[in-house]
Batch of 3 targets.
Target 1
Amino acid sequence: MKLGYHLGYWSSGPPADALETIKEAEALGFDSVWTAEGYGSDAFTPLAWWGASTERIKLGTNIVQMSARTPTATAMSALTLDHLSGGRFVLGLGASGPQVVEGWYGQPYPKPLARTREYVEIVRKVVAREEPVTIDGKFFQLPLQGGTGLGKPLKSTVHPLRKEIPIYLAAEGPKNVALSAEICDGWLPLFFSPKTDAFYRAALEEGFARPGARRTIDDFEVAASVPVIVHDDVEAAAGFIKPSLALYIGGMGAKDVNFHHDVFARMGYEDVADKVQELYLAGRKAEATAAIPTSLVEDTALIGPAAKIREELARWESTVVTTLLLRGDAGTLRSVAEVLA
């Protein structure tokens, strides 16, 4: 199992010591480094800025929100970063949720799976540069229909360094996970648990079995964001993670449309997820955090003494996950890498 470093998206400003930590990740033999975007910092710029000081480590977006850019604009950034990095770029895409898509980007959210299919198709056509890009889809038309009538099919002026750039899809629901297996090269789960491996394995196999699927389970990447905290006190370690879980379960999305809440409900924590959401949306964030049991944290993270983490790692190694994406400063990465070695 490979290790990656996930910077995430910024809060009020750039994370401290980001470049130092990225360099340490590369020196430790980490396979990849990833950036993200919400409705503040973007994913491409930090990856280019800090990635310029690296030589080997893969540079990935986890994730670029599709509603933020047209497919051709995303493909342009992917082509550019792939050239600048010497072929180390991985394009991670995601649909986000209706609150951000419609509230921040002003784009429609309905039918995200069908929209994703068209989006990925266009990105691949741009990168391949085999012919001018045309599509007459339900969501995208190239050239645009009903405009001035002067639009014409074009292909990138830039020749690709690689005819195919790996595309990973962030997905949580079974239909979207199956789509990632069908049309992409990897899947980016956010709250994965070994206890749900069979559920997601079945969703992936459904995608692999579809006509024209690009990959099989043997050459498909699954890069999961997994908190790892080495600490003698399990409860204290869980305490570092619970506030973030409360935010995602309770506040990331509307009451009736929160995909993160649904992940934990499928995991067997439906009552907990409902309570956390109720408390969080009522503004009682501390109580929402306190309502999360340590067992839920342990199901989705590796926490506690080094010996406990090493023992539990075996559960993860038997799953579909191929890469653990870690967070933290350079010291954290060193300690975790030593434990997981």
Target 2
Amino acid sequence: MNIAEIFNRGGLAMWPLLILSILTLGTIFERLWFWGMVLRGETKLAEQILDAARHDWQEALELAANACDQPIGRFLYTPLQLIDTNPEIFRLALEAAADEELSAMRRGEKVLEATITMAPLLGLLGTVLGLISALSSIRLGDIGTPATLGVGLGISEALISTASGLVIAIIALAFQRLFQAFLLQQAQIFRRTGNELELTYRQAWLEQRIKGEAEKTLF
């Protein structure tokens, strides 16, 4: 059997499964493209901004501004705009930027979750409807006679929708786990980079305060 024949024999439940599979594949391809863009050169970019921040905050700000098409660039640009502010406000800006970026990275997660939940149920529904159709024409007196020869074929065709639903759900689950791993990795990068930037900023802010107090004492 080719794909069209399998689809036709799967029953009415194959149509919502087809819609779910299209949405799932679209989400998977979009997320793969997104994560491919995010992970490419991200660590190097973060190191460049951190190195710049250690000796020139304005240079670090410019580097982050030029990288605002990347999540790591936007994440670092938000607090770097607040130079000469209180370190606690700087830290809050880091946390808010991280939360915003990580929330945006979860886009498409609900589609995969819905597919994982609904696809097996739709497949099971298709099987139940197929079994009802296959068994409804059987009479007790026909059991064991040639009149029931087509029942086995009807039952096998009814199971097509269940198999299809399981395949779609398994694919969605595999990629959901992959994207969750990427998200966890991204959260770790944000945490490590943010901590280093905050520490650098606190040291610079403290040195500036000490220098300012020393100048006041001289005058």
Target 3
Amino acid sequence: MPDDEAQHTPPDSLLQVIDNLARFHREHEKYYSQAPLRQAGELQARSRALKSLADRWSDVEAGEQTSAIAFAGTEDLNAPGLVAESGILFMEGEGEPAELRRLRNEVHLLAEDTAQGGAWLAQAMEQAWEIAGSLAAYPALADLLGERHRIIANDWQSAGLQVLVARLLRRALDLLARVDFSPAALRADLRGERKAPAYLYSASELFDRAADLMTESATLVHENERRWRMFRARVRELQSE
């Protein structure tokens, strides 16, 4: 290969690496352009459950234990329609509903996974940024460097959003931890300052914002699809020459 052509085009070994990255990272991003949308929908459902309880507890008058029968539902604490939708059922003589504990545990796991994913992605983009800069030495790729850097920028921004989502979820859990969800404690609160609804409303608002940001993150990643396709097509064209 003449010297001027060798300088114009990346060596075959580098083209193979670039092709590998373009192929597998494109496939990886197909997943992450969809998974956050599903998670956001699930998070919105959890937010609606909290709002339903907060709405109920903002207006209802606290009752007494209405049944001595084990596992009887509480007439005052259960929100209309919520039991069928979410499974959250307050029962006489019991503590926090198992479904509400599960909700909090699932959000905790989501926060941990999102924080770790965001940190990993940010670190990966640090390296990708440096590698992309080195490609400027090859004019054969010059017109696609904007596309490659835009991919990195989108992923980097997505990483930041993931870290913020984790913060929002953790703070929402902190707020929920201030509520004693046993029927006895909730009825005492309803007869007093009604602090529980306020905490639930605030936690649900943080869930909502986190869901919005998860959707934004998925949108950023989805925008990379065409750019990856163009970039890989050029690499394969150069490999065939």
